[in-house]
Amino acid sequence: MAAFDYAPAIVLLPFVSFLVSLGAALYGDDVLPKGGALAGIVATAGSLILSLWVFFTVSAGNVYNQTIYTWTTGAGAAGEEALELTFGLLLDPLSSMMLIIVSLVALLVHVFSLGYMNDEGETGLPRYYAGLGLFSASMLGFVVAHNILMAFMFFELVGLCSFLLIGFWFREPGPPSAAKKAFLVTRFGDYFFLVGVVAIFATFGTGRFAGAESFPVLAEEVLAGEVAVNTFGFAPTTWFTVVGLLVLGGVIGKSAQFPLHTWLPDAMEGPTPVSALIHAATMVAAGVYLVARMYGFYAVSPTALAVIALVGGFTALVAATMGVVKREIKQVLAYSTISQYGYMMLALGAGGYVAATFHLLTHAFFKALLFLGAGSVIIAMHHNENMWDMGGLKDRMPVTYWTFLSGSLALAGIIPFAGFWSKDEVLYEALVHGLGTDGGLGTIFLVAYAFGLLAVFFTGFYTFRMVFLTFHGDARTGQARDPEGVGWNVKGPLAVLGVLAAVTGFVNMTPVADLFDLDIEYLHRWLEGPEGVEFMSALSAHHYLELLESDVTGIHAAELDPLIPGGVSLLLALAGVGLAYALYGRGEPEEYTAKLGGVQDLLYNNYYQDEYQVAIAERVVLPLSRAADKFDQSGVDGVVNGVSSVSLFSGSRVRRVQTGLVSNYAALVTLGLTVLLVAFGIYGGWLL
Amino acid sequence: MVPAEWYLILAAAVFCIGVFGLLTRQNALLFLMSVELMLNAANINLAAFSYYWGNVTGQTFGLFVMALAAAEVAVGIGIILVLYRNFSAVDVTDATTMRW
Amino acid sequence: MVVYPDWAALAPALALAVTGLVLLLIDSVDPDDSRPGLLAGTAVVGTLVSLGYAGWFLASGTGQVDGGTGAISLYRDALVVDGMALFFQAVFAVVTALVCIASYDYLKERAYQAEFYSLVMFAATGMAVMATANSLATAFIALELASLPSYALVAFLKHNRGSVEASLKYFLIGALSSAVFAFGISLVYAATGSLLLADVASALSALDGGLTGVAAIGVLMVAGGFAFKTASVPFHFWAPEAYEGAPAPISAFLSSASKAAGFAVLFRVFTTAFPLDAAGVDWMLLFQVLAVVTMTLGNFAAATQETVKRMLAYSSIGHAGYALIGLAAWSGGAPGSVENGAVLGASMAHLLVYGFMNTGAFLFVALAEQWDVGRTFEDYAGLGSRAPMASVAMTVFMFSLAGVPPFGGFFSKLFLFAGAVDAGFWWLAAVGVVNSTLSLYYYSRVVKALWVDDPVGEFELGGTPTGLYVAVVFAAVGTLLLLPGFAPVIETAQSVAAALVP
Q1: Percentages helix, strand, coil for chain C, rounded to the nearest 5?
Q2: Which residues cross the membrane (chain A) (predicted)?
């Protein structure tokens, strides 16, 4: 297929724009018009067009799974296959869908940056666009990777770009330390990932995602007893769970799941378009995408699934509650991002592969939209992010308001916006699998479902608290009364994403399909993949369902009408919105959280214990201490001085060894060790 | 096949280079790098003798050593940063307010 | 009868790790440290749960030979839960609990409280795992897990030059030591092909001549790594500065719990992995030399200090020397005889008592820092009449540390020295007694300053920090109660130590 021949260019185009911007950055600031933005826009537009071409080719029933470049081949032992480390492309429904998300958001963010960075007169723009270009290239490379080692390498590259872009304003105090934190925290997770990659290669001898010789397929065959691999003395199920959890370490770090979520709120120190691209729509999605990519491997390990579901559900709830009290608009969005990725993990863990992919798709659009909308507000407010300084922006920036509202309705999960359909499907999958599965696994799914359901309420609340504080009411500061205008390059991307946030959900309206018995679950069908291609059978949603329902995993779905749980979550979301309206939407909003804190602080100030302790001390201890006084004067002084006066001289010499110079200490430690080595070597007879 | 002794000698040499750096450098970062050398000397041994004994214990432990080395550097850089803030230098011999 | 899974035997360590995570969670929900009581409370409850598990297991015989399940091996022998591990875990939990209670006041008005407590918890987890380490790999990792948070904790007062300098020195010497340790392990592995203690022992016994030197250097370097953790000569140089510069509760934590953890893993590794006759190193002689040098250096240097905290730091080195006697006089008796367990058990009991009295002493220093009265002996003058209760507690600690009869420290030293004499090392005991006498001099200087000397100038004590008071008084009560309660302690310690020795 011609599209597949050009597919490598999807990755290479942004890389070229990176090189161009890098050259400009090295040469000087003003050699390129717009600081290198145009190269990036052209490159990502090219990637988008090629991605669309690939998308249509895939929808015509073609898929692609080829090695492009082999960089090393190991010497295989007799009778075993040699280990190959390769680069290659895997273009199937999942990756082609992700390609469009990434290239589209990257393009829009490049355009938006014209308004956010260029028009605001930032310096060092080539460096910025070089970072964006390298990021786009690495993210696209990650998406198309056909083996886990390649995926790991690009996974690390996006982490590097994230570090560089968060720290873009490196002369200010906040960004460098935020960048460092993001890097170190995600690296911590990636270390487990690396060990997991090595374990996969050591176990299966391959890192391929798809094909007969791929590790998910091999794992399946091992469990069916058809082939044997080296599982290092463990039972295969145990070992696969261990490996799966190791890889999950990287996922948890990158997708900001509890307990490695801490870096993401700090990462908001970076420029807002970067937050939209990297920390909302794409890089953070890499973790979830990786799990979906190798879902066949996770689907045979119930323990790993339980961990994923529980981590996801818990993160969704905890992050949502934290978003409730934040003052900065980007902080709210950051916690909301953590929470939404929690939903995706919940879906993956609870066997909702399609639901997770669906939410990944819708969330990418509406969260990018919200971040860009926040960016627009931040431009208008002269880079003041505190929502308490805003208010009443609705009338002054209508385009931003209406698009932001579209994104907010999607985030809160209000029908018929995109987020409603996908979040509903996530929760529905968790519920039916929780009800249908026996034993502890089912209970865990139900617990995770409860977390997720509760989080819906908080999501509705914090989302509309943000909307009301920012756009409604009266302006609370002078800046909010007279905001700076934004140009077409800000409004354009917002409009595109605003429409997408409203309509993307229609690709998979499961409740409607069930209600009217229509065949409109396009995403379901899309992820089934084309018939008749050999390796696709192991990557299809249908096959994953079979794996989940096999005896190994034993997850089953209960029969349940999707309308009732959907209605419940919608009601909860509306309740959250309503509460936000009641508290913040009418007239002059108050800082309720401050009141809450004051009441609780009061409880901690009970100190009546102090008094009675002092009383005991004065009445009982004082007489005792007078007796000790006498004892000292008659006895202690004289005896002790006599015994130790000789020692004092040597003591004052001994302490001189402690010179205070740590270099001397190191030398003395080394010397001491050497003396011991030599002395015991001669004494023990093995030296000299 | 290279005899096992050579690996021991190589590792010992790398270790000694590390010790030499440790004793002669005053820059805290170079001090850290010297320690890294010493840890990697241990890794050479672990990897070589993992092969020699035909089990993966050594290699696995080597991975752990690497991870801990990275963690150690992370903590170390943090300490060096506060050192710089308090003493305006990363010279390890500057901090001598406590002695004897 | 409920049958618990084997890993449940790790409950004391798991409780600490979970508490650390819970603290992080609390911090995520409430990043402004506006609930110091909740943080300190969580930490204390976590350590008490850990203590409860360790105590329950010790009482019910889990992991013990006498009337119990026998040592529980976990994860292919990488960890082992036996009486000694539980005994030390109880020590760590007690010290950590005291430190957390005291930190509540010490940290008042400071930022990053949740991080402080969770670092303490993770370091304590590392120590608890050290006590169970049954492989050189787990020993190394657990040791690092205990060390890395400690470096950060020492530097916790990051605008205080002393704290930063202390941390730098601690860290640099620590990094050097861990490199030496890792290289030692790699050499032991080179010679034996295994990291599991039991396998190392059998491989060493069947070692061919060519690798003896490699193994011996490895053993010495491994000893070096542990010497760092226990602050023994020649790896002790970090200790005076680190203990002096660190926040006082952390000094208490490091000099009591961290040191005990070093001894826990030292005892296990040397008694099970390195057979005396096959290790190529006469490590009993090694520890005799180290014990004598360490206790002498520590006590002599402590005798001439001006500041109380640094005096305590050097005295802590001296006590490491005492505890080393446990290994130095280890197999003076016949292999497998009761005396072996006797002296090792006495050393463990001493570490327990030391956990109470030394923690208490450092916490008193924390109290003095809180009041801002100054650092030298002279500055403490007259505190007895102003803060009588704390001063009485401090007096108990000082006399107990010195080993004066009516206190806990007296008994533990008595058993230790008696064990050494029984094992035939009367000269070790003699050196110990001379050192203890010298230590009485400088400990009583503190007592003298507290009760006898007149204050140099007028000063006001700023309030009575409840948490610190509770911790100090509790430590003092512990030190006193160990006098009548010493019999069960020494019996437990000696029986679990005897079980350790093959």
Answers
A1: 75, 0, 20
A2: 6-28, 35-56, 94-116, 128-145, 151-170, 191-211, 231-253, 274-292, 304-325, 332-354, 360-380, 401-421, 441-464, 485-507, 563-584, 665-686
